[in-house]
Amino acid sequence: MSNLETIIKENLNTEGKLDCKDAFKISAKTKTPILEVGDKAKELGIRIAGCELGQFGNLKGTGEFSEVALEKMAPFIDDKNRIRCKDARSAAGGIGLKKIRGTIKEKNMDVTYCELGCFKEKRRSRLYVKTKTWIENQEGELLFGKGKTEVLELIEQEGSIAGAAQKLKMSYKKTWSHVKILQKNLDDVLVESQQGGGENSGSKLTPLADEYINNYKQLEKDIEAYANERFKELFLKPRNKREFKD
Predict the structure, then answer these.
(1) Residues sharing a CB contact under 8 Å with residue 105, sequence separation 6 or more, in sequence order
(2) How far apart are CA 85 and CA 51, in angstroms?
(3) Among residues 88, 112, 113, which one has the least CA distance to residue 101?
């Protein structure tokens, strides 16, 4: 019996499985690459349990969300909201795996390429919910939405309708028509313009326009938050059992 095999068998839990944390301790103690520890356990018919990143098994304490943990993992998260096991564990330096585990759960991330070889990548496709919010009148005509908000914000930022049009790569006439339609449908003045070359010349938003923008953004944020929570309840069921590599 090899030394590695002996040590693995000496460190099994009460269920006859090798806990993830103990596998890493064995790797460090014997100076054996962690994947070799996982392969040896598989060769012996021993299952790995208690993933420290929360991907399978039940650890005591699920962990807690941490902005610091999210910041440390951010450079390694791909466009599908996935992070490699090695990178997630590396990010735990100085803050501990509990915060990494809790943050992964809170942000519903997938962990890929387990260092012990338990899984390479989750086979379940990621699902996302998208929302789009706009305000209409009773005739179904658009009163306020994301596009109109962008026009107003750029007018304020650039100090003129011409400047906003240039940023939007839109003609002056079309940009101004957005403003006119808004003002007509809302029956309020949203943009004030002053001709001439003085320091007060150009265009600026009225306080009422700022109020419309802020209220719209808050509405958009609230709807998105509700949609995300409801989506998780309906579509993202708890996945306690993870697929192991054959």
Answers:
(1) 54, 62, 63, 65
(2) 10
(3) 88
The label of the residue with tokens 């179904």 reads 140
Q: What are phi and psi of 150, to 5 degrees?
A: -60, -40
Phi, psi for residue 135 in degrees, rounded to 5? -115, 130
Q: How many CA atoms lie within 13 A of 165 on its CB side?
A: 14
CATH class of the domain whose range is 135-229: mainly alpha
DSSP symbol at 50 = -
DSSP state for residue 204 in the 8-state scheme: E
What value does the mean pLDDT of the chain take?
A: 87
Read off the amino acid at residue 139: E
Render pLDDT for 107-150 as a digit per residue (tens, 0 to 9): 999 999 999 998 765 545 556 788 999 998 888 878 888 888 99
Give the Cα separation of 230 and 224 in Å (integer): 10
